[in-house]
Structure prediction request, 383 residues.
Amino acid sequence: MKRQLCILGSTGSIGTQALDIVAAHADRYEVYALTANTNVNLLAEQARRFRPAAVVIADETCYDSLQKSLADCPDINVYAGSKALDDIVQAEPVDMVLTAMVGFAGLSPTIHAIQANKIIALANKETLVVAGELIVDLALKHHTPILPVDSEHSAIFQSIVGEGDNEIEKILLTASGGPFRNYTMDQMRDVKAADALRHPTWTMGQKITIDSASMMNKGFEVIEARWLFNVSAEKIEVLIHPQSIVHSAVQFVDGAVKAQLGIPDMHLPIQYAFSYPDRIALQQPRLDLTQKPLEFFHPDVNRFPCLALAYQSLEKGGNMPCVLNAANEVVNAAFRRDECGFLQMAEVIGKTMEKVPYQASPTLEQLFASDAEARRTAEEMLG
Prediction:
């Protein structure tokens, strides 16, 4: 039988590439539900092509427009709002939920999908950044597999498959370094969103591309790796790898290093999560190792303090990663609106972490409260 997929965030970069996989392997996969935040036109176009049982638009003000767009498709149910997102992931026919929504908004539907025992293909890194311990405990309680989709975490996962209980000495988490890898602090002081959005190797959505430029994205991935692979922060080393060919690696206690290499493209990690433990044909360009040298450098946390802030939040634990994420979402959006400087982002995030009260063992409700308070605090500092 075909695996029934619910794709949260189908109109984004990950979602659209996931649908490429579905189209290429229509004998294996079928779309049960598609969701988007506000992109009515693309969501309607995708619905016409893949004929899901349901579509959900998160922004309720877009409901009428989406319903009208699909008025001639009575077999497709149209829903709107955050509760509809939580409900659709629990639908009985759904086998796997691809969580490709951006930001804190992906947390609640992911929790509901875990509680409904759906296989999770995790592309929403904020879920583990904000509530890593709670999510891991919940997944264990419900015996719910979480398969990583981020290229780096997929590479780590692929490197440990078959290793059983062999001890990991270190995770080598690679980063491109973004567009400002060789910039001085003075140069970065004046960059704008348009500069930060010109990523040298990856094509991604705007929010994650800005996070990549500040290296906050890599900080989030450190936190995510800590929970996905049960390793401490000091065992996760970030390496700048401008070619984005080695997607990440694992060093074992005997000194052996296993890595997954490939072109900088997300189709492979998405498909691997869909097909695991099988590998199936993928019609994408192949890696040619003769084309360019592979370089590795240590990151400069003085020039990229967001990475240091992420490590600090992980070491502090509790609600601090949640505060880090909330403040980052605020300053990231403000930077894209030209209301915040590039270097100012880290300053606001750091001060927000100092101002929001620390909670060592927060409940889910307290994490939502911390998120709201951190957003208010960051917004106030931006004026």
The radius of gyration is 20 Å.
